[in-house]
Write a structure and sequence with these properties.
The chain is mainly beta. 6% of the residues lie in helices and 30% in strands.
Length: 192
């Protein structure tokens, strides 16, 4: 089943329905998203927007695309879902083990992480090299996240006086101006 933009109080996926939200369309909910059976997929540049702080249940699939990149290039990723078993290596299995990083503000450098046992932490940005079998010509790579969609407030501790690598924890875009105003940010923000 292929849907376009949806506005609803809540949304429940059941009866093994396969709901796919195409690029450029939004699902706006006042309440929770529940996936009981079937699937709910947000393609690249599709959004799940929730106006209340409610808990979602069930897994969704969120697809996000890089710009056209070549083998040995890096992309910064942050997961829009929570999944206790989506390790960084599961997300990008063909990336070499030593090419997964997170930023350490106390040393001001990226530190490698053990991708096979490091799960995406909510709101944390991870620098991941493209898969080792990615083409050497500029090509888009699609990252796929599977888990329960994040919703509500996310509080992160950031170090003052240095850089921090944070990522969008939601399955929707964030308005940078609203983010800056809401969080009383006076420092510069740099977007990967």
């Amino acid at each position: 089943m292929l849907f376009r933009s949806i506005n609803a109080c809540t949304l429940t996926i059941n009866n093994n329905a396969n709901v796919i939200i195409p690029s450029g369309f939004n699902v706006t909910l006042n309440g929770a998203l529940t996936v009981s059976s079937g699937s709910f997929t947000l393609n690249n540049n599709a959004n799940l927007i929730q106006s209340s702080n409610v808990a979602n249940s069930g897994n969704i699939i969120v697809k996000r695309e890089t710009a056209a990149l070549m083998r040995l290039d890096y992309a910064m990723w942050s997961s829009p879902v929570t999944n206790a078993s989506q390790y960084l290596k599961t997300f990008s299995p063909s990336t070499l083990d030593a090419r997964f990083y997170t930023y350490n503000p106390s040393t001001n450098v990226y530190a490698s992480v053990v991708a096979s046992s490091t799960n995406f932490a909510v709101g944390t940005g991870y620098l991941i090299r493209l898969p080792n079998d990615h083409p050497t010509t500029p090509t888009i790579w699609t990252g796929t996240f599977t888990g329960t969609p994040n919703n509500g407030n996310v509080n992160l501790v950031v170090a003052n006086g240095t850089y921090n690598a944070i990522g969008n924890p939601y399955p929707s875009t964030i308005n940078a101006d609203t983010f800056i105003t809401t969080n009383n940010i006076t420092e510069a923000l740099y977007f990967w």
